[in-house]
Specification:
Elements: H1 5-17, H2 21-30, E1 42-43, E2 46-47, H3 49-61, H4 69-76, E3 88-94, E4 98-100, E5 103-105, E6 110-118, E7 121-125, E8 130-134, H5 135-144, E9 147-153, H6 156-165, H7 176-180
Antiparallel strand pairs: 1-2, 3-6, 3-9, 4-5, 6-7, 7-8
Helix pairs in contact: 2-3
């Protein structure tokens, strides 16, 4: 059964109004739990790693961006020592040039992102579906794949600027309108 996200959002508005942005970010990550992986997608029914984070950002802040894991790291998650109430994500950085799907990821490039849910716990969107993992388990898994992990907090000012300019919408899903209407 598919969730009627527009109805869910109407029902949840009162509850979400009481939440901090960080709580909303984690909440909207969690609403994607067990959804199937969808490369290049960021809608409530299917997303890739960066799409799940971009969707949660959009729902938590009302600001719209869509970019890759590397774009999120380089442009938006630039705060090196985020506070406990910050919107945070774990980024997996290639130690050297390496194959990544059908392309080569360059040394220093973020090849994966997972939103932080709490101390040492992340929301990880990979094939076959989105799941909750410990950061340590992902650190080990991606370490074997030649990646290091870093944690960064959101630069809200950069997000606001990009959303206002509308120039960071790398492949934004047209399907979002099916869930949230024309105002998305």
């Amino acid at each position: 059964m598919l969730l009627e996200w527009n109805i869910l959002m109407e029902t949840e508005k009162k509850q979400c109004g009481k939440m901090s942005e960080a709580d909303k970010f984690r909440y909207f990550l969690m609403l994607q739990y067990r959804s199937p992986y969808g490369w290049g997608k960021e809608n409530p029914m299917t997303a890739d790693c960066s799409g799940s984070v971009c969707l949660a950002l959009m729902m938590a802040t009302g600001l719209k961006v869509r970019t890759t894991a590397d774009g999120l790291l380089r442009k938006f998650f630039t705060v090196r020592s985020p506070g406990k109430d910050a919107l945070t994500a774990a980024f997996f950085i290639a130690r050297s040039d390496r194959r990544h799907g059908d392309r080569v990821a360059r040394k220093g490039e973020a090849v994966h992102v997972a939103g932080l849910l709490g101390e040492g716990v992340v929301f990880n969107c990979v094939e076959p579906c989105a799941e909750i993992r410990t950061l340590e388990s992902l650190r080990l898994e991606y370490g074997f794949r030649g990646c290091d992990v870093i944690i960064r907090g959101l630069d809200r000012e950069a997000l606001e600027k990009a959303s206002k300019e509308g120039n960071e919408l790398f492949g934004l899903d047209d399907e979002l309108k099916d869930y949230f209407g024309e105002d998305i």
